[in-house]
Amino acid sequence: MENLFSLCFCSKHYKYEAYFTTDKSNVKVGEAITFNNCSNYGGGFTNALWYFGDENHKFSKEHEKVQHSYNSPGNYKVILYIGEKENTSRQEKIITVS
């Protein structure tokens, strides 16, 4: 399996920038995957909203790690949203489940 370990280096900006890493991009059905929120919050504080592509979602605090597993094989688009009202940012990644 592919391994995508990354360190989070965040600096202050005046704009939210969604960014996350994963511990793997290919998993087996039922295998947990960890998502690391490395987003830049521009000096502000906001929650993060994760969509996992399988009708599940989760709210988390800034820079919190979340775990998720999938019940069926396929390609899933994971989206992380951060920000407030008009000032939002998002990042997407595809997770392959076999």
Q: Can you walk me through this structure?
A:
The protein has a single domain, classed as Immunoglobulins (Immunoglobulin-like, Sandwich), CATH 2.60.40. 0% of the residues lie in helices and 45% in strands. It contains no helices and eight strands. The strands form two sheets. A five-stranded mixed sheet has the order 2-8-7-4-5, with no helix packed on it. A three-stranded antiparallel sheet has the order 1-3-6, with no helix packed on it. The radius of gyration is 13 Å and the shape is elongated. The N and C termini lie close together (11 Å).
Write the layout of secondary structure elements.
Elements: E1 20-22, E2 26-27, E3 33-37, E4 48-51, E5 57-60, E6 65-68, E7 74-84, E8 87-97
